[in-house]
């Protein structure tokens, strides 16, 4: 890690430095839409803020995090210097420039289209160009993960690729495939219209292309957290991974099943028939499999660690676990929140129940619970593992890290549970202002205020996280840091089947599934008539 | 952080055969869980005929006010020969036309909506009548309101800076109080 540590460190700093203001914006948005007074009481600013918050949290933060974590894994898990470091820096700067290019028009209120784009509403072209650059920069990373994966395999014929590298490569491939939906939408539909070369846009096709990206992107966010579940947590807990093979199966299943399911975001749309909506609803159930597998394997791994540490009886192993280890605590809390988050997801993906909660606050609450509660909490723990290795300075305080993770956990719960309930009561999402004098809306007011309090708890947890990172970065350097070690499995495999040691076959399966699930739904647009809609540039016509 | 604990103790703690056996059992549990949930979705979907707008009808958003079923005189509630109701509504920045729709309770109601500009959402609060209104397409939603009352109908997809101000109402009248007009006339809230 010595040689290549500035590369992952730069990525992780950009990720978290974007994350911090995005959390601040999120908190202000909660205030703005609540009955409480907000400092800048302006709906136009609200929609600009939601666009910035969403774009950073969906595109910038997790992408930089995955890239940084990926480079760290390539060096530490493969035990060799990174091939193509120059290209990695090129990708880093392209994504960084993209971030700035995207966020400037958002900040001046010229691109408040929210991170989902949804044409024919149109923002400044630079917003789309910027987001596109963030994506393009990440393709350098995808290519480098594949190159390093392949190089190691050639040097170590017949040996199983370390699970962490196998998984991050699956993550990179998944992102490479799924980002194409949004890229095609931006390149062929949005940009020609924003630059004035075309005047109409097929909103149905745009939504369909975007759905290719919009669902699988959540697994792109999730996989780095799962990598920590499988490879870092058992080590931190002093145990072993229950099964290396099941880990590989889970990551392969994510790669294969997470893309041909995006249409469950379009259940309520008029541009698709029931048949394909149903097909993708069923496929969405399949993508629950790798998570259920993971819950099983990780709980078993925790139990092994607990028993190795002397835990006895049916539940005694739980108390024997080292909960003061940030990685163990984060994975434990993440697993807990994955429960309600996952069940919320099952409701969303259910063809019929979706109608009840579609576009209500339930959906916003759901993805905040999953992303914040199950994913970002593990990103924190990964940062606590990586920072000492990347900076050569020991973590300033495990006790503070422990506190920070617990505060985050409660913040997420206090924010998202009332938010879910308000959604069930019919609160629509993406509203700058609610009329709390309306009796129906007034009933939601206490819930919204509770969410605001949760937002404050979340914000304080993030500030504590930064305090720990900065203090650690400026602490005196240790003489030597123990290297990052990945968990062995209980029975380390001497060899694994070729299918679980590479991706060629799975790429083919993935393409076949995408063709089956999306071939007709996308192809139909070229045979429909009349549906092209004139583009509507965003205007600031609403004044207070 | 490196753990001081000696995890060598875990080596081979559980034999490969036991792991395989347990995993196989979990596989059945997973399949069972997903199977049951899937069955519930399919059975309720079929039995209650739950299906979202899925007819793929297109309409030119630039000319919908000039011709076809969405001309102004045809908006609002129409009584079909079979007694069911069809409500036609246009969504545009930042209102629905008409701003108030009236329908009888306990009667099949078909909402037909389209957008004159950007993407909007059609959502009758406290019900599961919920659909996207995408320009260029006609949203066709079947429902049946069991309880009379005033229902808010906010736009639930972001449509621009005035999104939060975009809302209409659905008035569900007791069936016997709903004044039926001949099929060629349109019913709106004011006339009831």
Question: How does this model look, in words?
Answer:
- Chain A is mainly α and about 550 residues long.
- Chain A has a single domain, classed as Up-down Bundle (Cytochrome C Oxidase, Chain A), CATH 1.20.210.
- Chain A has 18 helices and 4 strands.
- In chain A, helix 5 packs antiparallel against helix 7.
- The N and C termini of chain A lie far apart (about 55 Å).
- With about 190 residues, chain B is an alpha+beta fold.
- Chain B folds into 2 domains: about 35 residues; about 140 residues, Immunoglobulin-like (Sandwich).
- Chain B has 1 helix and 11 strands.
- In chain B, the strands form 3 sheets. In chain B, strands 1, 2, 3, 4, 6 and 9 form a 6-stranded mixed beta sheet that branches. In chain B, strands 5-11-10 form a 3-stranded mixed beta sheet, with no helix packed on it.
- Chain B starts with 15 loop residues before the first helix and ends in a 19-residue tail after the last strand.
- Chains A and B meet through helix 2, helix 6, helix 7, helix 9 and helix 10 of A and helix 1, strand 1, strand 8 and strand 9 of B.
Q: List the domain count of chain B as a whole number.
A: 2
> What is the CATH architecture term of chain A?
Up-down Bundle
Provide the helix percentage of chain A: 55-70%
- Full CATH superfamily name of the largest domain in chain B: Cupredoxins -  blue copper proteins
> Which class best fits the helix and strand makeup of chain B?
alpha+beta
| Number of helical elements of chain A | 18
Q: What's the CATH class label of the largest domain in chain B? A: Mainly Beta
Alpha-carbon Rg of chain B, integer: 25 Å
Reported for the largest beta sheet of chain A, the result is: 2 strands, parallel
What is the residue-averaged pLDDT of chain B?
88
């Amino acid at each position: 890690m010595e040689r290549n540590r500035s590369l992952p460190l730069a990525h992780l700093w950009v990720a978290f430095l974007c994350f911090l203001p995005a959390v601040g914006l999120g908190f202000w948005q909660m205030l703005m839409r609540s009955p409480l007074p907000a400092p800048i009481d302006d709906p136009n600013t609200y929609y600009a803020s939601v666009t910035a918050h969403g774009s950073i949290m969906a595109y910038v933060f997790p992408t930089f995090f995955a890239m940084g974590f990926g480079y760290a894994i390539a060096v530490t898990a493969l035990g060799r210097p990174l091939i193509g470091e120059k290209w990695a820096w090129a990708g880093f700067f392209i994504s960084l420039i993209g971030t700035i290019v995207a966020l400037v028009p958002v900040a001046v209120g010229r691109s408040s289209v929210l991170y989902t784009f949804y044409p024919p509403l149109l923002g400044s072209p630079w917003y789309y160009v910027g987001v596109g650059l963030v994506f393009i920069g990440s393709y350098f990373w995808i290519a480098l993960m594949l190159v390093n994966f392949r190089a190691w395999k050639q040097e170590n014929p017949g040996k199983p690729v370390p699970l962490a590298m196998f998984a991050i490569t699956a993550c990179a491939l998944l992102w490479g495939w799924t980002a194409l939906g949004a890229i095609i939408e931006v390149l062929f539909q949005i940009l020609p219209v924003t630059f004035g070369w075309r005047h109409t846009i097929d909103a149905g096709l745009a939504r369909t292309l975007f759905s290719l990206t919009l669902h699988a992107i959540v697994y792109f966010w999730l996989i780095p957290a799962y990598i920590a579940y499988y490879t870092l947590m058992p080590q931190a807990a002093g145990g072993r991974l229950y099964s290396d093979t099941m880990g590989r199966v889970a990551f392969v299943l994510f790669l294969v099943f997470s893309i041909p399911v995006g249409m469950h975001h379009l259940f309520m749309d008029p541009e698709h028939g029931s048949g394909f909506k149903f097909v993708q609803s069923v496929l969405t159930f399949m993508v629950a499999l790798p998570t259920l597998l993971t819950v099983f394997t990780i709980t078993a791994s925790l139990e092994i660690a607990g028993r190795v540490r002397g835990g006895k009886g049916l539940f005694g192993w739980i108390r024997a676990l080292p909960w003061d280890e940030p990685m163990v605590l984060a994975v434990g809390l993440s697993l807990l929140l994955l429960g309600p988050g996952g069940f919320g997801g099952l409701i969303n993906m259910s063809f019929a129940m979706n109608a009840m909660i579609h576009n209500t606050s339930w959906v916003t609450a759901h993805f905040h619970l999953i992303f914040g509660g199950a994913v970002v909490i593990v990103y924190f723990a990964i940062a606590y593992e990586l920072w000492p290795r990347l900076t050569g300075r020991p973590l300033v305080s495990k006790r503070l890290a422990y506190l920070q993770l617990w505060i985050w956990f409660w913040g997420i719960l206090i924010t998202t549970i009332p938010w879910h309930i308000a959604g069930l009561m019919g609160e629509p999402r993406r509203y700058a202002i609610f009329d709390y004098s309306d009796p129906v809306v007034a009933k939601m007011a206490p819930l919204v205020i509770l969410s605001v309090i949760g937002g404050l708890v979340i914000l304080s947890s993030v500030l504590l996280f930064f305090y720990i990172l900065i203090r650690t970065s400026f602490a005196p350097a240790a003489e030597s840091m123990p290297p990052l070690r990945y968990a062995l499995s209980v029975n380390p495999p001497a060899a694994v089947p070729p299918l679980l040691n590479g991706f060629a076959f799975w790429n083919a399966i993935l393409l076949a599934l995408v063709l089956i699930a999306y071939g007709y739904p996308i192809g139909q647009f070229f045979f429909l008539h009349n549906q092209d809609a004139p583009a509507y540039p965003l205007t600031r016509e609403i004044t207070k | 952080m490196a753990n001081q604990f000696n995890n060598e103790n875990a080596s081979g703690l559980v034999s490969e055969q036991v792991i395989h056996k347990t995993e196989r059992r979990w596989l059945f549990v997973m399949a069972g869980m997903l199977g049951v949930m899937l069955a519930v979705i399919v059975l309720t979907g079929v039995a209650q005929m739950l299906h979202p707008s899925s007819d793929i009808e297109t309409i030119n958003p630039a000319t919908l006010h000039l011709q076809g079923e969405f001309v102004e005189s045809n908006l609002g509630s129409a009584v079909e020969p079979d007694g069911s109701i069809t409500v036609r509504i246009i969504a545009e920045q930042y209102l629905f036309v008409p701003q108030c729709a009236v329908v009888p309770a306990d009667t099949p109601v078909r909402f037909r909506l389209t957008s004159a500009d950007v993407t909007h959402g059609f959502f009758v609060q406290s019900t599961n009548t919920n659909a996207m209104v995408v320009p260029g397409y006609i949203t066709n939603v079947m429902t049946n309101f069991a309880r009379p009352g005033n229902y808010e109908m906010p736009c639930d997809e972001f449509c621009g800076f005035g999104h939060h101000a975009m809302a209409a109402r659905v008035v569900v009248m007791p069936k016997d109080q709903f004044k039926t007009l001949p099929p060629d006339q349109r019913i709106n809230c004011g006339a009831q």
